[in-house]
């Protein structure tokens, strides 16, 4: 078994309205910053032991599919690194 | 015969729902979601109440949707037991797969607590048999994450299948003016049916429009679905 850290990034699908990001962008602009756009995402870091990178990825993928992301509105990606 | 009102940690409309059902002479019982006995044997209906289950961690309804009792709720729903999700219960319903789509952050990015008008899209379900097709009812909303979101093509299919139950509208039933859509829901959707007509979720609160002492009673007909 090898120790891995999986990083799951969950973001809204393209085209899904993100009112919190829009509000955050407006707040930055009120502070005087210039920016073209702002998107927000959730990032989860999961430490786990697995037989291989592929095994770790499969398990984390299922975690994302079943709970961390809502496939109706979210896309997600998984990165695996040895820890 | 009793309606099981599932209380999760953070539910806060469970007692309102119990009082509203009692007012309608519908027997109801609050069931703690971790109760070892699970749903009462005589469960004839299930209400998923409003509130902030698990503090809306991750996404509103996401944690409660994976609470063990939800397996029982899904089985009961598949067996034809009527299930109604209200507000946070609607979010739980969508997160648990009882209904399709997602209720997410309001377009305003604010919590909104106000009275809204709803157009009844069909009157041949247990939840809407008390109304006429196209009837306009007034029911309160109180949510920060009520914007109905779903893939456009899938929404078109659900509409074709008659699974949109309520839409936000003006007092005459018109839906075109964006100002009548309080949270930016796609196609003004306020409530949808599951795979069967006995499963429904909606963001507005019928239990807050049932007792005459607290305002309107337009929500009574929805809760009466448990007695049909």
Automatic annotation (TrEMBL), chain A:
Keywords: ATP-binding, Cytoplasm, Ligase, Nucleotide-binding, Purine biosynthesis. It is found in: Cytoplasm. Pathway: Purine metabolism; IMP biosynthesis via de novo pathway; 5-amino-1-(5-phospho-D-ribosyl)imidazole from N(2)-formyl-N(1)-(5-phospho-D-ribosyl)glycinamide: step 1/2. GO terms for molecular function: ATP binding; phosphoribosylformylglycinamidine synthase activity. It catalyses: N(2)-formyl-N(1)-(5-phospho-beta-D-ribosyl)glycinamide + L-glutamine + ATP + H2O = 2-formamido-N(1)-(5-O-phospho-beta-D-ribosyl)acetamidine + L-glutamate + ADP + phosphate + H(+). One of its GO terms (biological process) is 'de novo' IMP biosynthetic process. GO terms for cellular component: cytoplasm. Pfam families: PurS. It is an enzyme of class 6 (ligase). The keyword Heme does not apply. The keyword Lipid biosynthesis does not apply. Its EC number is 6.3.5.3. Part of the phosphoribosylformylglycinamidine synthase complex involved in the purines biosynthetic pathway. Catalyzes the ATP-dependent conversion of formylglycinamide ribonucleotide (FGAR) and glutamine to yield formylglycinamidine ribonucleotide (FGAM) and glutamate. The FGAM synthase complex is composed of three subunits. PurQ produces an ammonia molecule by converting glutamine to glutamate. PurL transfers the ammonia molecule to FGAR to form FGAM in an ATP-dependent manner. Belongs to the PurS family. PANTHER family: PHOSPHORIBOSYLFORMYLGLYCINAMIDINE SYNTHASE SUBUNIT PURS. Part of the FGAM synthase complex composed of 1 PurL, 1 PurQ and 2 PurS subunits. This is Phosphoribosylformylglycinamidine synthase subunit PurS. It comes from Natronoglomus mannanivorans. The lineage of its organism: Archaea, Methanobacteriati, Methanobacteriota, Stenosarchaea group, Halobacteria. The gene is purS.
UniProtKB/TrEMBL annotation, chain B:
GO terms for molecular function: phosphoribosylformylglycinamidine synthase activity. The keyword DNA-binding does not apply. The keyword Repeat does not apply. It comes from Natronoglomus mannanivorans. Keywords: ATP-binding, Cytoplasm, Glutamine amidotransferase, Hydrolase, Ligase, Nucleotide-binding, Purine biosynthesis. Part of the FGAM synthase complex composed of 1 PurL, 1 PurQ and 2 PurS subunits. Part of the phosphoribosylformylglycinamidine synthase complex involved in the purines biosynthetic pathway. Catalyzes the ATP-dependent conversion of formylglycinamide ribonucleotide (FGAR) and glutamine to yield formylglycinamidine ribonucleotide (FGAM) and glutamate. The FGAM synthase complex is composed of three subunits. PurQ produces an ammonia molecule by converting glutamine to glutamate. PurL transfers the ammonia molecule to FGAR to form FGAM in an ATP-dependent manner. It comes from the Archaea. Pfam families: GATase_5. This is Phosphoribosylformylglycinamidine synthase subunit PurQ. It catalyses: L-glutamine + H2O = L-glutamate + NH4(+); N(2)-formyl-N(1)-(5-phospho-beta-D-ribosyl)glycinamide + L-glutamine + ATP + H2O = 2-formamido-N(1)-(5-O-phospho-beta-D-ribosyl)acetamidine + L-glutamate + ADP + phosphate + H(+). The lineage of its organism: Archaea, Methanobacteriati, Methanobacteriota, Stenosarchaea group, Halobacteria. Its EC number is 6.3.5.3, 3.5.1.2.
